[in-house]
Write a structure and sequence with these properties.
The chain is built from 17 helices and twelve strands. With 382 residues, it is an alpha/beta fold. The chain folds into two domains: 201 residues, 3-Layer(aba) Sandwich (Rossmann fold), CATH 3.40.50; 173 residues, N-(1-d-carboxylethyl)-l-norvaline Dehydrogenase, domain 2, CATH 1.10.1040. A hairpin with a 5-residue loop joins strand 3 and strand 4. It is globular, with a radius of gyration of 21 Å. The termini are far apart. The relative contact order is 0.09. The structure holds nicotinamide-adenine-dinucleotide (NAD) and D-Mannitol-1-phosphate (44H). The site of nicotinamide-adenine-dinucleotide (NAD) has 25 residues, from helix 1 and strand 2.
Length: 382
């Protein structure tokens, strides 16, 4: 069994690659970072170091590595007979993976079992996004033939993997907690065997609970923490004023998850506690800059702030704490982050309604619109 995994970064090596390896797959890492790929190709193993209660050191071996930017032939050869294709590259990068998926399907024998394609990104319907990009490249006639050669399944991945300290090499430090939920119905009665993952009938409730709790809480901690001058996530949450505002945000998103997906209030309270304890893990050197990265993506319509706030507003439920987190996000000014630079430029030039429409995807007339314009207007120049 072979799995080609795009994105040999933190979650790629520290979670998806590990689980595929443990499931018995020969893992082929594909990445555009030449230094990383060369290091992987020159090594025969790396270690995933867990930190927290019950922590273990886990060795990953039997992998290969391909530079997907410069070695198209080697990549195509690996993909042609792969069983699984996964990604952990970031949602905005999926469109660059689509040509490789298309090539893999073109080269695949029509008689081979379908390729299992699973995007492991923090985004709703990430695999569907990858499928749509691939379909678009193929055109309607070819797609009719090719789509039978793959199964596209959405997934939700949860494990905090911080940026790795200098000198760590290929080893990755991760938390002990992990969850990989995969939607089962697209596979019919033949889902891939990945013991570390669990298969669910409907992914929607899982991905929304995860994105609107773990990621909303994480990003809120990062943005409130950044403005309060904190560098680390654990340190930010130790600040009572940050923790109190993050908890208020999570009460709002939990109200949506309870109302929309039927999770119990007690169950959500427990889920929040576990998550906040994970953020407080002192063994994880996670920073507000990593967690707050790409603020324009995080402020977009289907993401961790605007999506729950829009749905709460539509239901007439409170959004005050979420709007406070959005306002904090607007203050994320990190010169090393291109989206933060663009955010600050837009705030200096855009009128608030333009920003709300173009960045947040909220149109006039939506119940969130006027309050969001008011919040953004406090930060824009005009
Ligand atoms: N780190 C976490 O805690 C965590 C947890 C759950 C989900 N995620 C999600 O996983 C994804 C990756 O996050 P990460 O933290 O591992 O980021 P990362 O930056 O550590 O890794 C991303 C990797 O993708 C590679 N890449 C970029 N463009 C590429 C391309 N065109 N082809 C192939 N590879 C390419 C980069 O070189 C990098 O090695 C994101 O969607 C993130 O939201 C991360
Ligand atoms: O990866 P992002 O930029 O979407 O979000 C940053 C963090 O919140 C995220 O990477 C978490 O660590 C992860 O989602 C935990 O499962």
């Amino acid at each position: 069994m072979k799995a080609v995994h795009f994105g040999a970064g933190n979650i790629g090596r520290g979670f998806i690659g590990l689980l595929l390896h443990d499931a018995g797959y020969e893992v082929v890492f594909a990445d555009v970072n030449a230094e990383l790929i060369d290091a992987l190709a020159a090594s025969d193993h790396y270690t995933v170091h867990e930190v927290g209660v019950g922590a273990r050191d886990l060795v990953v071996d039997r992998y290969r590595a391909v530079n997907s930017q410069t070695d198209a032939a080697a990549l195509a050869a690996e993909l042609a007979d792969a069983d699984v294709l996964t990604t952990a590259v970031g949602p905005n990068i999926l469109r660059f993976i689509a040509p490789h998926v298309l090539q893999a399907l073109r080269d695949r024998s029509p008689d081979a079992p379908p390729l299992a394609v699973m995007a492991c990104e923090n985004a709703i319907d990430a695999t569907s996004m990858l499928r749509e990009e691939t379909r678009h490249l193929a055109g309607p006639d070819e797609w009719l033939e090719l789509e039978r050669r793959a199964v596209f399944a959405n997934t939700a991945v949860d494990r905090i993997v911080p940026g790795q300290p200098e000198g760590a090499g290929l080893d990755v430090t991760v938390e002990t907690f992990s969850e990989w939920a995969i939607e089962e119905p697209p596979f019919g009665d033949a889902p891939p065997v990945i013991p570390g993952a669990h298969f669910v009938d409907r992914l929607g409730p899982y991905i929304e609970r995860k994105l609107f709790t773990v990621n909303t809480g994480h990003a809120s901690t990062a943005y409130f923490g950044f403005l309060a001058g904190h560098e680390r996530i654990a340190e930010a949450l130790a600040d009572a004023s940050v923790a109190e505002r993050v908890e208020r945000v999570l009460h709002e998103t939990s109200a949506l998850i309870v109302a929309k997906h039927g999770f119990g209030e007690g169950e959500m309270a427990e889920y929040r506690e576990v998550i906040l304890a994970r953020f407080r893990n002192e063994g994880l050197p996670d920073t507000v800059e990593r967690v707050g990265r790409q603020p324009l993506r995080k402020l977009s319509r289907r993401e961790r702030f605007i999506a729950p706030a829009a749905e709460l507003a539509e239901r007439g439920l409170p959004v005050d704490a979420l709007l406070a987190a959005v306002e904090a996000a607007l203050g994320f000014d990190v010169p090393a982050d291109p989206e933060s630079v663009e955010l600050q430029e837009r705030l200096a030039t855009d009128a608030a309604p333009t920003f709300v429409r173009e960045v947040c995807g909220i149109e006039p007339g939506h119940p969130l619109h006027d309050r969001l314009v008011e919040v953004v207007g406090r930060r824009t120049a005009s």
